[in-house]
């Protein structure tokens, strides 16, 4: 599961324009049965050619089989699980009771859930048996898309001839052909697919800092343009963790549909790149986010080991300047543009709370626009436009930061300095409400029929 998440999706999948996201789940389904499921969001190309994705998946499984279970990787994962267990937040009582009841129902020892992972022992024979069981003979796959038809077979899949009992949802249930099974059994190892390397982000320092510096409220450590830094040393929760959030303000500009779309496209490109490059950090519970809008938000949460925090900040910001704005157009459209187009087309299916947040943001900006207009503007934007948006934003900015948790004041200052040095062209502009420029009002939003929800679930049983 860890290997698939870290190596597989962004090589034969996303790099070639077949998927936009992937995650895995291991679930215990019975006393002697567990399932490994792989969830993916498919592009148009991926929906048309799901067998390419399945073949790539079994190429990775074959790589794992040929290399065998890496003892060092196994021990590293146990170590990660162990410190996650030690410093995890307490479960709610009803959630804990529900989890234990489910495990006891399948005759699972509750100690496996309540005891630390450090008591696990490496069993080469058992691990090999588990990996060998992940094969085309023990495999199902499911595809969900509104492009499938009840009337006839189409380029996306078979005709949906049956309906399930609860919601009358149409579906088709087909046997995987023996030819496909044999093809997936005989795949050759793809040299692009690598096993996970040693995780450089695994924290080593869990020491709690001296609380003598602590203040009852956050204090300002630096208020010199262009950075204002607040700091707060936590003494209540006694967890070796840090939470650092920064708002990056550009010179005020009038809100526009084009600016909104450029921010969303940059967010998509960054999130796809960080999903691969920063996955090892996410694996050890670092949460790294760069969110782009009329101002940018940078957030780092995780264990407070100073060396690892600095590595994460450096890596996260370096990625912003390493984005590829010269991708093949078909790949760029499939993985970046089309998911945003679907979002605008499917606004009618948004939950009320989410739709309310979208509208409230428009009202806050004093700038309403229709999603019809968004699609029109989206079709005019190029990769070089996104690069120019990023570079122009950073020409004249100010930064407000808050570092809190198990972090000393000098450490907070060091992290802030890294951020400032990475975003090298800094100015002295500040955002104030009065600087917002009013603009014209687009027609009232019209609801659009939902067009798509392409996804795939591949359980390897």
Could you tell me the radius of gyration in angstroms?
Answer: 25 Å
Q: Report the structural category.
A: alpha+beta
Order of helices and strands: HHEEHHHHHHEEEHEEEHHEEHHHHHEHE
**In angstroms, what separates the terminal alpha carbons?**
13 Å
Give the number of helices.
17
Q: Helix coverage percent of residues? A: 40-55%
Structural shape: globular
Count the E strands. Answer: 12
Largest sheet: spatial strand order: 6-7-11-8-10-9
Major sheet:
6 strands, mixed
Beta-strand percent range = 15-25%
Q: Any low-confidence stretches, pLDDT <50, length ≥5?
A: 426-453
Mean pLDDT over the residues: 82
Explained architecture:
There is one protein chain. The protein is an alpha+beta fold. It has 17 helices and 12 strands. It has helices spanning 2-7, 9-13, 44-48, 50-67, 71-86, 93-105, 111-114, 124-133, 178-185, 257-277, 279-283, 306-321, 329-345, 352-365, 371-378, 383-393, 409-422; strands at 19-30, 33-42, 142-144, 162-163, 170-171, 219-224, 227-233, 241-249, 287-291, 296-303, 398-405, 455-460. The strands form 3 sheets. A 6-stranded mixed sheet has the order 6-7-11-8-10-9. Strands 1-2-12-3 form a 4-stranded antiparallel sheet. α10 packs across α16 (383-393). The chain is globular and about 70 Å long.
In short:
By secondary structure, the protein is an alpha+beta fold. The protein contains 17 helices and twelve strands.
């Amino acid at each position: 599961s860890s290997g698939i998440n870290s190596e597989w999706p962004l090589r034969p999948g996303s790099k070639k324009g077949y998927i936009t996201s992937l995650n895995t789940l291991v679930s215990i389904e019975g006393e002697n049965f567990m399932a490994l499921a792989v969830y993916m969001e498919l592009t148009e190309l991926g929906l048309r050619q799901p067998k390419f994705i399945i073949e790539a998946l079994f190429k990775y499984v074959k790589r794992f089989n040929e290399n065998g279970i890496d003892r060092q990787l196994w021990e590293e994962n146990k170590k990660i699980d162990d410190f996650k267990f030690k410093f995890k937040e307490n479960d709610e009582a009803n959630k804990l009771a529900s989890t234990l009841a489910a495990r006891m129902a399948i005759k699972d020892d509750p100690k496996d859930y309540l005891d630390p992972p450090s008591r696990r022992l490496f069993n080469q024979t058992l691990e090999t048996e588990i990996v060998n069981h992940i094969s085309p003979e023990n495999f199902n796959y499911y595809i969900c898309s509104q492009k499938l038809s009840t009337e006839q077979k189409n380029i996306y899949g078979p005709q949906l001839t049956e309906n399930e009992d609860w919601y009358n949802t149409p579906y088709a249930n087909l046997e995987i052909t023996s030819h496909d099974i044999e093809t997936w059994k005989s795949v050759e190892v793809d040299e692009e697919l690598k096993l996970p390397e040693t995780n450089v982000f695994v924290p080593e320092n869990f020491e709690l800092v001296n609380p003598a510096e602590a203040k009852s409220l956050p204090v300002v450590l630096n208020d010199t343009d262009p950075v204002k830094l607040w700091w707060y040393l936590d003494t209540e929760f006694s967890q070796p963790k840090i939470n650092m959030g920064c708002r990056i303000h550009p010179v005020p500009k009038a809100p526009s549909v084009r600016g909104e779309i450029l921010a969303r496209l940059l967010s998509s490109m960054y999130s796809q790149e960080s999903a691969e490059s920063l996955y090892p950090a996410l694996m050890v519970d670092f949460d790294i986010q760069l969110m782009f809008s009329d101002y940018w938000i940078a957030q780092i949460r995780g264990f407070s080991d100073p060396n690892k925090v600095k590595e994460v900040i450096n890596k996260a910001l370096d990625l912003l300047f390493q984005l590829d704005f010269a991708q093949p157009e078909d790949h760029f459209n499939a993985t970046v543009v089309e998911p945003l187009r679907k979002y605008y087309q499917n606004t009618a299916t948004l939950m009320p709370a989410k739709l309310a947040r979208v509208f409230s943001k428009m009202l806050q900006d004093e700038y309403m626009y229709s999603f019809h207009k968004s699609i029109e503007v989206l079709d005019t934007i190029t990769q070089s436009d996104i690069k120019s948006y990023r570079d122009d934003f950073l020409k004249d900015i100010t930064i407000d930061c808050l570092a809190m948790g198990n972090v000393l004041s000098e450490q907070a200052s060091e992290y802030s300095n890294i951020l400032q040095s990475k975003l090298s062209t800094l100015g002295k502009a500040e955002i104030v409400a009065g600087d917002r420029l009013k603009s014209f009002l687009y027609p009232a939003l019209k609801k659009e029929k939902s067009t798509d929800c392409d996804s795939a679930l591949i359980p390897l049983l």
